[in-house]
Amino acid sequence: MTDTTASSFVRQDLVAERRAPVKTTGLIGFLRTRLFNSPTNILLTLLGVLLLWFTIIPSLKFLLVDAVWSGKDRAACLAENAGHPVGACWPYIQAKLTQLIYGFYPEPERWRVNLTFFLGAVLLVPLLIPRLPAKGVSSGLFFLAFPVLAFFLLRGGGIGGFGVSWTVGILQLFDDSIGSAGQVLINLSQNSAIGPLLWAVGKTIMLLSIAISWLVSPLTWLRDQIQASGQPVWIDFVVTTVIVSLILFLLGGGVRSGWRALIASLMTFAGIAVVIKALGLDHGGLAIVDTRLWGGLLVTLVIAITGIVASMPIGIALALGRRSTIPLIRIFSITFIEFWRGVPLITVLFFATYMLPLFLPGNFTVDGLVRALIGVALFTGAYQAEVIRGGLQAIPRGQAEAASALGLSWWKTTSLIVLPQALRHVIPGLVNSFIALFKDTSLVSIVALFDLLGSLRASFSDPTWATPTMAFTGFAFTGMIYFVFCFGMSRYSLFVENRLNAHRRH
After folding, report:
1. What is the DSSP string of 60-74?
2. What are the two backbone dihedrals, phi and then psi, of residue 448, each rounded to the nearest 5 degrees?
3. pTM of the model
4. What is the rounded distance in angstroms from the CA atom of residue 328 to the CA atom of residue 339?
5. Domain 94-158+290-504 - what CATH class?
6. Residue 505: what are its φ and ψ, rounded to 5°?
7. Three-class SS of residue 253?
8. What region does 253 belong to: left with phi over 0, alpha with psi -120 to 50, or beta?
9. Domain coordinates of the chain in residue numbers?
10. Mind listing the pLDDT tens digit for each residue in 94-148?
11. How far apart are alpha carbons 92 and 99 in whole angstroms?
12. Which of 103, 108, 168, 398 is 20 to 30 Å from the Cα of 155, by its Cα?
């Protein structure tokens, strides 16, 4: 009975053959599951292939296959001389490469630009690699020391004083501006229906100017004594070092815990002294190169990096100000953001270049490139403020409430808890603004600044390389430069985003 029952469950014939399983891995699997898995995807795949065929293939043929790689003038890039259809004229790029990088920067001084590029790359690498230590020192060197060093390397010139002289100069400029405004109001009061009110306001401003002059008088006397000495730069440097170090020592805790701040201050000023001596800033410094001679990739990088670095603190301050509970700060932040976002960048550049000097005192001038940098920084800061505000709104209110329950102040709560999380959330938006700013630097050409594209257009006027393919070659080359920088920022931001948001992965 048992043998019969067991044998009834044993198959006597072979199982019929079945089709092999569909491959879902590798190239064939990718094609089957992603590109040809439905009639719609098949149609889209064919259209994509045709689009690539009619765009990539002709581009590669123009840039590589039919391109001319050597020659001394336009004759090498003409079809009648080459004997075949001519593509990109790369000898033209070789001849104009220095102009595309440096603009009209004097050739004997171009080592200063190269040194600036090298120092910037060396100081930036420790900030980009997460595992390298001493991020605080690296940040201070790149964001504080490097801009000053780059200014004296690129522009040249020396210094006639240091902290005391600079402080007195700024305060006197502010005092002169207030005094001029008060005098204007007093003059207007003579022929105005509200003359008494204007006269009272003008007199008040004049009294304020007199009070500022009285408060600044000790510093003015000290500045005059320093300038009358034989070594005004170094005496001013020593006085500034003593004053700043003493203030930091007292703020750091005095005798108990202020020694660390004192040592850091002395080391910082020692580094500044080395730079002053190395560049000869106390004896006129390097030869001055007017910013109107700057151009090419140099101007593009200066505007982009300055705009990116300067717009971040502006954006953070405006974003926090727009969420402030103080009405004056909130209204000012909202007005600033909406005004700068409501005008195009071209208008901002025109205003900063041609109208800003009208609002400055007659004895005070601002370089044309600096005016453009100020306009770009303020414009980009308004956009960054809204991006950062979106990140701040994404942080639950319980975070701040928990910090308050632990006894943290508003500053510590914002800087240590809320703001780091908010910035982590909006990394894609911030980098998107950085990339847009890098490409928008080409707009400065309308205010007589020769960026990368401006230098390229200037090179078109050279009859030595006037060929039908010159413009296409130049724009293709500059397009590749823009793509390398923008794609690099995009990929690095993706790396940072994945690293900082690793705890959110599922």
Report:
1. HIIIIIS-B---SSG
2. 65, 30
3. 0.82
4. 16
5. mainly alpha
6. -70, 150
7. coil
8. left
9. 26-65, 94-158+290-504, 163-283
10. 988 999 999 889 999 999 999 999 999 999 998 888 888 878 888 888 888 889 8
11. 11
12. 168
